[in-house]
Every structure is written in structure tokens, then in C-alpha cells.
Amino acid sequence: MGESRDAGPFVPENADLPELRRASAGCRGCPLYERATQTVFGEGPVGARLLLVGEQPGDQEDRQGRPFVGPAGKLLGRALEEAEIERDAVYVTNAVKHFKFTLKEWSKRRFHQSPGTIEINACRPWLVAELEAVSPEVVVALGAVAGRALLGPSFRVTKQRGVPLDCPPFDAIGAPAPAQGPPAGRIVATIHPSAVLRAPDRDAVYAGLVGDLRVAARLLD
Question: In the chain, what are the domains?
Fold first, then answer.
């Protein structure tokens, strides 16, 4: 299929989640596929009312081919339970589907690198396709990368977290002009679970994550 600037040519039209997952394995929409072990597509039930978007796969996710199975994923599972959200009823995915990392001469470990605008934009067709296939009522953006993927480059998680925001129509996400028509649902932004693991005041930061998830849960009542 040749080189592509984004994942668009690899995303089948009007596909269901199993078809999208199979197609995503062959995505060559950006250079990240060259070093990653595999594509890590989203998981969860069709028709999930709540959809969570993270940043990108981590080391364990890249190895296992599943989202949120590493330390941050385990913490997220605990936070969802405390927010009274059933984990198996939620669809979870990432804004970027391949692991971006760097290697150090003094270590065999693969060090996480945050995706940039190029990777976010390149992978957005997959995220839009997932949103359209699942059609959730509420989307939770976990961290700045997810927020920018959904709401554009002006998004700031520190200023907009925990507040229900209108979600643009899914097929207009990432469009250069403001979307026309009714919103597709609501978005609640919060920090990424990995931020809790890095925080010196972990208990307080974790409580904030749970509080933001509770805001999303109340929107479903």
C-alpha cells in the first residue's frame, strides 16, 4: 500500500470492532510500527456506555497485545472499582496504538516516550473508528495526549479535568474547524494512571483520579 501520512488508508469503512482489530494489525500509518512488537487495539464490549482513552501502550501492553495490563492498568482497575464503575463494562483504548520508546546504552529496558502531534494525528482514524463502532455516551480522556487527540491541541488537562465537556461528533474529531451539529456525547478529562505512580503525594493524586471517574459515572445515571 506504500507510505502513508496517517492510518486512514488502513481503516476499513463501516467495520465492526473485530474487523477493525484485525485490520489494525497491518497498520503502517506512521513509523512507530517499525519498532513496536505489535499493534495494541482497544478492548471492551460493543455498545459500552463508557469509553476510556489513554495515551499509548506501555512495555507490558506492547508485549501482550492488550491495553492497560501493566502497572498503570492495574491501578486504573482499582480506581474504577472505587468509583463504582464495572471494569468489564468499559471499553478501553489508547490514542496511539503502537509503543513509542527509546533505548539507553546502559540499560536493556525500553523507556517510554510520549507520542507527539504527528503520531497522535496519524493514529486518530483508528480512535474515531472505535468511537463510532462503540458509540459511548461518555468518554474519559486519561491524560494530556488523550485530551489532545479528542479535543485538539489547546486542551490542557490541568485546567479542564473533572468537568463534563461536550464531545464533538466523532467523525469531526481532529477537524481544523469547530464541529457543526450536536455533540456525540460528553467527555471527562483526568490524569493518566501512570501519573499517580510517579507522584510523590500518591494518595492525594489517586483520590483525584477516582473523583474524576466518579464525575463520569454520574453522567451515566
Answer: 8-219 (3.40.470.10)
Number of C-alpha atoms within 13 angstroms, CB side, residue 164? 13
**pLDDT value for 180:** 58
The model's pLDDT over 28-86, given as tens digits with 9 standing for 90+, comes to: 999 999 999 999 999 999 999 999 999 999 999 999 999 999 999 999 999 999 999 99
Torsion sign, CA atoms 56, 59, 64, 68: negative
Query: On the CB side of 59, how many CA atoms lie within 13 Å of its CA?
Result: 10
Burial 114-152 (b: 16+ CB within 10 A, else e): ebeeebbbbbbbbbbbbbbbbebebbbbbbbbbbbbbbe
What is the CA angle 156-120-169, rounded to 5? 75
Dist. CA 221–CA 209, nearest whole Å: 19
Average pLDDT over residues 98-120: 90
Give percent of the chain with pLDDT exceeding 90.
80
